[in-house]
Amino acid sequence: MRILGIDPGYAILGYGIVDLVGNKFKVVDYGAVTTEAGMEMPDRLKILYNSLMELIARYEPAVASVEELFFNTNAKTAILVGQARGVAVLACANSGLEIEEYTPLQIKQALVGYGRAEKKQVQQMVKTILNLKEVPKPDDTADALAAAVCHGHSAGSRSRLKDLLARKAT
């Protein structure tokens, strides 16, 4: 299964594409879509949307794993990030992808085993799980890969549960 992980942002939108075969992850690509400060918001959103559409067309993921918005004390920033997140979800929906959403707490739990883990711990687990030489930069990229791995773990758990229930039913 090919998974597109997305860490939404309007200045930096992190993405990570991984293949899950059995219980092994393989990195396909990762990076960030950036927009320049001072650009009008509609122009920034258009860049994000078009870039994601190109990535989806190029790599043909089966599912998108999108990090849910973490609300901080700055409402204006939260609204702007929410707009970028909406554009990311729209690009995935318009491409026919299944979309799964995970909170930062769920992602940390899936990678580190502790929902209140530090960012550095999550980054190190991304590096380890994906067998990377170094932690991906910028942080948004590592967060997107973490979202993809989180979905891979979650999908694997659901698949094993379905198999178990199917065996019990027979």
Helix-strand layout with pairing:
Blueprint: E1 2-7, E2 12-21, E3 24-34, H1 41-59, E4 63-67, H2 75-94, E5 98-102, H3 104-112, H4 119-129, H5 139-169
Parallel strand pairs: 1-4, 4-5
Antiparallel strand pairs: 1-2, 2-3
Your description of this structure?
With 170 residues, the chain is α/β, with parallel strands linked by helices. Helix content is 53%, strand content 22%. It has 5 helices and 5 strands. The chain has a 5-stranded mixed β-sheet. Helix 1 packs parallel to helix 2 (75-94) and helix 3 (104-112) packs across helix 5. The longest helix has 31 residues, at 139-169. The two termini are 27 Å apart.
Task: Describe, in short, the structure shown.
It contains five helices and five strands. The protein is an alpha/beta fold.
Please tag this protein with its features.
single chain, 170 residues, alpha/beta, 5 helices
